[in-house]
Structures are given as C-alpha cells and as structure tokens.
Amino acid sequence: MPGIPGEGLEMEDYMETLKDEEDALWENVECNRHMLSRYINPAKLTPYLRQCKVIDEQDEDEVLSAPTLPSKINRAGRLLDILHTKGQRGYVVFLESLEFYYPELYKLVTGKEPTRRFSTIVVEEGHEGLTHFLMNEVIKLQQQMKAKDLQRCELLAKARQLEDEKKQLLLTRVELQTFQDRYHKMKEERDGYNDELAKVKDDNYNLAMRYAQLSEEKNMAVMRSRDLQLEIDQLKHRLNKMEEECKLERNQSLKLKNDIESRPKKEQVLELERENEMLKTKIQELQSVIQAGKRSLPDSDKAILDILEHDRKEALEDRQELVNKIYNLQEEVRQAEELRDKYLEEKEDLELKCSTLGKDCEMYKHRMNTVMLQLEEVERERDQAFHSRDEAQTQYSQCLLEKDKYRKQIRELEERNDEMRIEMVRREACIVNLESKLRRLSRENNSLDQSLPRNLPAAIINQNFGDTSPRTNGQEADDSSTSEDSPEDSKYFLPYHPPRRRMNLKGIQLQRTKSPISLKQVSDVQGKGSEDDCTGCSPGSSRSLPATSSFCDMQPHRSRSSLMSTTAEPPGTDSIVRRCKEDMPHRSIVEEDNDSGGFDALDLEDDSHERCSFGPPSIHSSSSSHQSEGLDAYDLEQVNLMFRKFSLERPFRPSVTSGGHVRGPGASVQHTTLSGDGLVGQLTLLGGNARGSFIHTVKPGSMAEKAGLHEGHQLLLLEGCIRGEKQSVPLDACTKEEARWTIQRCSGPVTLHYKVNHEGYRKLLKDMEDGVITSGDSFYIRLNLNISSQLDACSLSLRCDDVVHVHDTMYQDRHEWLCSRVDPFTDQDLDMGTIPSYSRAQQLLLVKLQRLVHRGIREETDGTHHTLRTLRNTLQPEESPSTSDPRVSPRLSRASFFFGQLLQFVSRSENKYKRMNSNERVRIISGGPLGGLARSSLDATKLLAEKHEELDPENELSKNLSLTPYSLVRAFHCERRRPVLFTPTVLAKTLVQKLLNSGGAMEFTICKSDIITRDEFLRKQKTEPIIYSREKNANTFECIVPANIQAVAAKNKHCLLEVGIGCVRDLIRCRIYPIVLLIRVSERNIKRFRKLLPRPETEEEFLRVCRLKEKELEALPCLYATVEADAWSSVEELLRVLKDKIAEEQRKTIWVDEDQL
C-alpha cells in the first residue's frame, strides 16, 4: 500500500511529461498556423486522415460543409483544432499528410526533409491499404490529367471555332467593304449631283434676280409712261381751254369794234344838240304866244282854244302813253338783249365745256384702249406662262414616273444582288460550319479512343462523359438554339454533347402563382447558371425551357447519380472521387426577388389571372384565338411581358416636380454607412413629401441602431445600390410609399444622410394625433382613368379627369392611397376614401387598354374578314433576322410586331371613340413631347421589321408609351377674365362673330393682331412665343403675342381666339390660362353645324376632323370643358350654353400638369 501513492505520482509525472511534449509539438504547429491555414486545402487532407482513423465522417462534414466556415482558411483552422484534440497521434498523422501533400510545409514545420514512409497508414491498414490509397491517388492524378487534356481539346476546339468565326467575320468584312465602297461611290455621286444642283440653283437664282430686276424696271417704265401720258392729257386739256377762251375773247373784241365803228361822230352830236336847243327855244316862244293870245282872244276863240287845249292834252296824254309804252318796250328789248347776251355767254361756256368733255372722252377712250391692249398682252403672257407651267409639270411628272421606275429597278437589282451575296456568304458559312464540325467529330473520336485505367469504375466514366446515347433530330433542334448549326447538319453528322457538370438544385426556385417574375426572367437565370457550370453549352439553349421542365429534367440526374449517398468508413473510390469533385462548393445562382415580398397586394383580383399567367386577363382570354392564328404560347407570353414592362418600375414620385429639393450637407447634416440588406425590417418610417421622412421606430440591437439611427431623425438622402444600380435618392421630399420602396430595394453598403429634427417630428406626431393630417403626404393628382369602388376594390368612385387630394400613400400599411375629392370652385376637400396605389392603377389602366385592344381587334377581324395572321404579316419582314445573338430571336420579333400592331390599334381615334364606353374611358399620355402614339408605335415596328437592328424591342416600345394612371397637378387662380379657345377650330371664327353680335361686346372681344415686317417677326420668334402668325404679303406678317392677350385681359374682358389648341402650352408658360371649350360633334347633331361651317364640307370629313381634334385634347396640360351634343338644339341655345360654360370655367380653379409643359 505505501508504494501505490508513489506509483501514482510517477504516473502523473509521466502524463504531465507527455502532455508537455504534446504541447511542445503542437506549439511548433501553432507557430506556423498562419502559413498552414493559408496554403492547406482541407479537402485534400481529410481522405488520408480518415484512412488513418484520426477523424471520422462527422468531423469531415463539419470541416467541409459547415455554414459557419465560409472560407478555406476557416476550414483549415477548424481542422487544426480537431487534430489538436487528438493529441500526439493527430500530430503524427498531420505531419505524414503534410509530408505527402505539402512537402514544403512539412519542411517548414519540422525542419527535416520528407521521407514519405506512411508509417501510420501501414500500421492501421497494412501495405494493401497503402497500395489502395496510392492507387486512388494515381487514379485521381490520371483524372486530372484527362481533365486537362479535355480542357486542352476544348480550347483547341474553341480556337478552331474562333478561327471559323474569324473567317466568317472576314467574309462579312469583305461584304461590308463592298457595301462601304458602294456607299462611298454613291456618296461621291450624290456630292457631285449636289454640286450640280447647287450650281443650277445659283444660276436659277441669278436668272430669277435678273428677271425680278427687269420686271421692276419694266414696271417703273410703265409707271413713268403712264405719268407722262397723264401729263400730256392734262396739257391737251389746258390747251383746249385756252383756245376756247381766246376764241371767246376774240368774238367779244369784234362786237366792241363794231359798236365803236357804228357810234355817231362828234359833229353830228353837236348838231343834234343845237337842233335840240332850237326846238326848245321854239317851244318856249309858242308857249308865250299861246299865253298872250289867251288873254286877248274872245270867248268863242277861247272855247275853241280850250277845245284845242283839251285835244292837245289828250294828244299829249296819248303820246305820253305811247312814249311810256315805247320806253317799256325799249326796256323789255334791253332786258331781252341782256338775256340774249347772257344766254349767249352761257351757250359759249357750255360749248366750251362740251368740247372739253368731248376731248376728255377721246383722251380717256384712248387711255382705255391702251389699258385694254396691255391687259390683252398680260393675258397672253399669263396663258403662255400657264401653258409653260403645265408642260413643265407634265414633264416633271413624267420624269418622276421614270425616276420611280428606274429607282424600283435599281432597288430590285440591289435586293437581288444583296440576296445573292447573302446566299453566297451563307453557303460559305455553311461550308465553314461543316468543316469545323468535321474536325470536331474527328477530334471527339480521337479523344474517345484514348486509353483509360483498367480499374476505373464505370460510374466515374459516366459521370465525366455523360450519357453518350444519340438523340433524335427533334431533340437536337430543341436543345440547340445557336445560329452556328445549320438545318442540314442533322442529316450528315451525329449530335455532339459536351460534358456537363451535375446541376445544383439549390439554384432553381419554382415560381409562385402571384409572383411578378416572368418565365423569361427565370429562364434567363437558368441560362446564366448553365453558362457558369458547363463550358460547351450554347448560350441560348436553356433560355427557351420553362422552369418546370428544367426541374423535371434534373430529377433523373439526381436519381441516377450514385455520388449523392454517404458511404461508410473506410471511404471507397466513389467517395474519394466525390470529395475531389466537391472541392469548390456550389453556390446558388438565383436569389429570391426582393420585389416579390410586397407585390401580392398589387395583383389583380382575378382568379383566372392568378391561375393562368402573369399578364392581365384581357390578353389571356384570347390566347386560343391568337394561337389558332399562328401566335403560340411563347409569343403570347412575350406580349404579356412587354405589357408588364411598362408598370411597376417605381412608385409615384411627386418630388420630381414639386417644390421639394435636395438639401445640401450643412453643419447639422450627418451621415452613416450600413448594410442595406434587410434595412426595411430594422426601422419604420413616418411622414411624407410635405413634412419629410422621419424614423419612427428602430429595432433594438439591429444594425440601424448600431449605426446611430434613432427615433426623430429626418432622412435626407440615400446613396447606394438600389435594384442593382448605383443611385442617389433624395428622401426629404419623397412620399411615404416611395421612401419605403427605396429602402426595401437597396442592397449592399448604403449611405444615409440625416439630421436630428425632434421639433418637426413632435409637430408631425401632434398633428396626426389631433387629426389635422393622416400622414406627411400631401399633393394633388389628376386621374387618367375611371375608378369604380365596386370593381376596383376601393372605397371611392372617381371619373377620368377628376382631381383629388392625396393624404396618405400607404393607408393602414396597405397599397392604397387615402384621398379626398376636391371641390372645383373652392379647392376644399369633399368626401374622403381610398383609391388603388400607383402600381395597381397602372395595372388597371393596362387591363382597360388590353380589353379595348382585344375587342377592337376582334371587331376589326369580323368586319374586314382578316385574321391576326394577315394583320401581322403586313408588318412581318421578308427575311427573319439572324439568331446569332441570343437577345434577338424570331419568336421575340413576332411578339414585337404583334405588340406594335396593338399600339397602332390603340392610337386610332375612330376605334377609340367607337368602342370606348363611359366605364372604360382612359387618357393615354405619349412618351414623346409631340409625338403621338400611332407614329411612335409605327416607327418602332418599322424599326424592328425593316432594319433588323439588334435592339431590345421592349425598351424601344416602352420609350414611346407611358402608362400614367395619375398625373401630378398644381392649382392656379386667375382673377382676370381668361381667354377662350374653341375646338374644333373650324367653328371658332363663326362662334366668335356670333358671340360678339349677340350682345356680348361688354364681356367678350377679339384680340388685335400686330402687323410687323419680316425682320421684326424673326426677331420676335427668338425673344417671345408667338401665339398666332400669318403672312399677309412678301414682307409683312400678322401675329398675336401674349402681350396682346394680356392687354385684353387688363380691360376685364374675355379674349376670343380663333387659333388652334396647340398654343395652350405657350400660353400657360406665359402665365396665361385659357378656357378650352370642346363642342362635341356626333352623328346625331352633325346636321346642326351646317350654318356654323365657313365652307361646305362633307359630314364624314368634318366628323373625322372633329375626332382628331378631340384626341389632341388628351395631351393638354390643363382641363377643358365640354358642350355635349344634346345640350343645345339651335345656334341661339349654343351661344347661351357657351356663355354659361365660360362663366362657370372662370370661377373654377385651374389645375395644370407641369410635366406636360
């Protein structure tokens, strides 16, 4: 008994000594742990360690397959830790494995040269085990050598393929060089023709200038001759007048001369005066005698004397009467002579005037004859010019016909030449393909004839070389989609199948029923995975297979593979080979789409839609008809993918056009960098575009909390990878929905710029608690479609062109918007409810559009007896594009043509108005600023059909069509009376005149236009917008500018404009908001417009013009008023309705879509 404690102490000392020796041995390994873990591959050492029974299968699985050991260094470190627990035996076996696999590391650890005695495995397994192990290693080396040989053969085949492609490219280069030479030649000819044309134009211009100069000189000479002729006529008239005056003077001078000659002489006058005196003296004497006799005569004598006196007196009285009578007669004669002289003078004047008028008549007659001769000469020149013009036009039309004929012949010859060249290149390419396939098959036969080890298991051969059973021609056609294989190859050559690796089932995900990921996306991912896993597979071979078929095809591979099972110890040959092939762990090549998490609420509530496909139900309802006409399921799926391409890009962004702006980094702005993966689950947001985006709660212990984000921080900017793109998104003016969408879709490291704003956060919470606001969102939108509360799963029914006030873009954390209807006169919020979010509204708009298109195509097909195949063949190219590029395929091209025709159909105004009822009214906004939907879709279709360019048709067509269910609008108020525009424009002039004539001069007036010269007009065009312009003559323009309209508005009157609605944008840019009135024209009331049309037109033409004008109203950035067809029955009622509409629109608020300016 006393010796037992001593022996126990010795045993303890011995164990401590062994432990110290083990620690010393492992201390040497730990000193070189960094080098060992860096260069050691655990997958190489574990087979030997398991052969020596140092580690078991569980340890091997932990080292090689543990998810906590992602890198090789971690796995090597874990292996060293496990061997450290095995003690000295683990150390010895580890050194032997280093001695065999890593002699340099063995020398580094021990300082000795490797001897490779394998003592441990000889002790454990014997010499047979060592031989077996070495044989396995030899087999592995042979496999690696064969893999290298196969790789070398593949590289040689690839080099030959590249040489073949080089030859094809050389042939293509020769063809392109020929085309380039031909192009340069045609360019030189065109330049020569352009020079000749410029020279001819210069000569023509010089001749025209010379002709104009001569015409001006001729006109000046004619004017001068007319002036001279007028002066001559005036001189003749004056000469005639002077001649008549001279004649009159001459006649008067002759009469005076006669009077002077006929007067008595002076002697006669004196003699008559003496006789007169003598007679007077006798009379006095006789009177004195008579008086003296009276006194001395008797009474009888006196009686006789009295009688005589009485007789004398009577005689005197009689004589006096005769004298008076003579005097009166003389007076009458004198007056008659005066009248005669007066009438003679008047007669002479009249004769003078008559002669003057006669000569004037002769002069004017001569002038009229001269003018008539000139007019006849001008008419002859005009007729000659017309005749020359007709001859020139006839000659020009004949030249055009001949030119078109020659051009058609040249085009046919060029097409024939191109076809022959293409056929030649194809034949040469076919020859090159046949030669390359011949070399490849010969190389394959040579590679298959190489010797293999005798003890190589058959499972390894099947695993490396795959199933070598030949396939049928149909399978080969389905498995290969490259342009390298010609259709004739299957007749002369056996199919070639390159070696393929075992497919990883983790990289394949089955699609959910409601997932927005399309079949094309999954097939693209599978195609990428196949490119990464196998070297000889064509790039497009896996893209045309759906996910279900790929999954079903992988099940036999998994069942056939014998390497998936776990073998027991000791590991056999299959286990060793499996471990060698699984050195690099497989990664999942397809990740779950982050966007599918919140999309289920956006899907249409259509069971058939959820069961069948991902597109809207209107297209799938007609899939059978499409397939019957030649559009198979793949084409239909491509059409649905193109339609879905337009939607779900990102949520509604009022911050783009609102007053919000990105605040630059200031003193109070902070930033932090954290991982964007799962960030949306670490914090919740509050606010919106009006109040800003605030952090409401932060998950405790999350990365967001560790990064310094807390409640009350206002987010300003997010920088990082969003949906796979490097973006910088301002969050201070985003809606709540957009901010959440952005944070949900960011990945990798992102940088958040924020600032501490507790005051704004507390004010936001207080307003929400008091019920002042629902969230931080506040903006106004205009609806571009009808929304029904019963059909569209919302609580508010709205019509197209209604304006609503949005209060919350994520109401109750659902994809619904809380909004209220806006009063058109006071801007006050009326009834409140929910409407679909922007993404769901896009789908609703898409469904309405597709239903309209499908019904229109069906009606068009029934009416014209044309099928979809004939409609599609009108735009189908004569020669299908080459499928060398996997992005472009005949199937995709056919779907693209069909999609272009759908867009063409939507753009037709007559179809739209004929088939659209009140519940299906939509407002389609084009992508282009001025381009229409028809023109853009037609251009895109022609681009795909004629030029065959390698472009993505979805991107080309998505640029021309914008599915915009809601448009952001802004309110404006106008105190002055607004100008008025009428559409159709052909009725504007008549309506303006009738409004002014019907007593509206106090309220309405027309705008006076400016008359300016050409230089001033060109100057005005550069400085200010011109609302209306018209060229009056060669150097004068009549135009209306905004200042003219503002001058009318300053008088507090409505300015009635007779211009089209194309000037609305220019007016709004100048802060002038017009009232646009649409007078609805239909088949029922078209006869009422006969009195309003300025010129007679056919009813069909007038109706077509009105429909086109109504279609242009959709692109206006403002609302318009409509006068319905049944609102009036006469012109007077129409004028009354127009006045009421103008007064009503004047009181309304003006809503402007500034994105459309």
TrEMBL record:
Domain Guanylate kinase-like, first and last residues per copy: 920-1143
UniProt keywords, alphabetically: Coiled coil, Cytoplasm, Disulfide bond, Immunity, Isopeptide bond, Membrane, Phosphoprotein
Ranges of biased composition (kind: Polar residues): 462-475, 514-524, 538-552
Region Disordered, annotated ranges: 462-499, 514-576, 608-629
Annotated CARD domain residues: 21-113
Alphabetized Pfam families for the sequence: CARD, PDZ
Keyword set includes Coiled coil: yes
Quaternary assembly: Homodimer; disulfide-linked. Homomultimer; polymerizes following activation, forming a nucleating helical template that seeds BCL10-filament formation via a CARD-CARD interaction. Interacts (via CARD domain) with BCL10 (via CARD domain); interaction takes place following CARD11 activation and polymerization, leading to the formation of a filamentous CBM complex assembly. Component of a CBM complex (CARD11-BCL10-MALT1) complex involved in NF-kappa-B activation. Found in a membrane raft complex, at least composed of BCL10, CARD11, DPP4 and IKBKB.
Name this polypeptide is given: Caspase recruitment domain-containing protein 11
Record lineage: Eukaryota, Metazoa, Chordata, Craniata, Vertebrata
Gene that encodes it: Card11
